[in-house]
Structure formats: structure tokens, C-alpha cells
Amino acid sequence: MKAALILEADHPPVYSDFxxxxxxxxxxxxxxxxxxxxxxTRGRASGAHYSSSGALPFVVGVDGVGRLDDDRRVYFVMPPxxxxxxxxxxxxxxxxxxxxxDELDDITAAAIAxxxxxxxxxxxxxxxxxxxxxVLVNGATGIAGRQTSWCQKSHCDRP
Length: 159
Known about the structure:
Blueprint: E1 2-6, E2 14-17, E3 27-35, H1 39-46, E4 58-59, E5 63-68, E6 73-77, E7 89-93, E8 97-99, H2 106-126, H3 143-154
Antiparallel strand pairs: 1-2, 1-4, 3-5, 3-7, 5-6, 6-8
Helix pairs in contact: 2-3
């Protein structure tokens, strides 16, 4: 399969061949349709992020959208090294897949997940934000604001 690979430390990814992932027990095989380029992805690719293993080569990407072997469309996160989301195929634990609604396109789903979850986690875990409370999202034209707007339109059960 084709993938964006880190072959050497401190070098940009290259588009190259990489062995296809074979899922183990409890893992899902995913045909990737979209992957995001986030700060976490860039940090891991450069080796600067705490979750970087340092083992080379590896496929870039920590999350994305794709189809399971049964054709269900999912958002997925944290493929096990050396696999990543910037490849034709990936694998992840079944618990790291979330079914996506039909009205949310693949590119938007891949783009909003990490920024949206970062905002959500900050509100839920740090601020202990409760349903019914109000928050001002400053700079709401970015991905975090887009996540909030999408949730309001689709009646998410999140605050």
C-alpha cells in the first residue's frame, strides 16, 4: 500500500510503499478515506511529541476517517505503531472507532475531531462544564467553532 512515511528523524514524510496492516484480535482493518494534519500529527512525525516511539520507519497520522471491512464509516484514532492514518489502510482497536452520521462528510469529520475533542475535554475535564451553562468561544471561525456550529445544527447531546 502507499503511505506517508517517516524514514529518517528530522526529515519530512515521503510517499512510498509500506506493508499492509494485518489486524490482530480486537482490532479493525480500515480503508482510509481522510486523515487530518494536526499539531499532534506534526509533533509525532518530528519525534517531538511525548507519544512518539522513535522507531523508524512509521506511517504518519494519528486519526482519520475510513471504512471498516463491513463498509461501516468510522472516525478512528491512535493506530498502533508503525501504522498511522496517512495511508491507504490502517488498523486500530475496535474501541477506538466511532460510527459517523451520514450527513457529516469524511473531510470535515477528520478535520474537526482533534480540535473539537481538545475543546470538549477542556470544558468537560478542566472546567467541569455542565449542560445548560454558556461559554464564549473566542475565535469561533476556526475548527473549534466549526465543531460547535455542527453540533448545534445536528442537536448533539454535548454541551
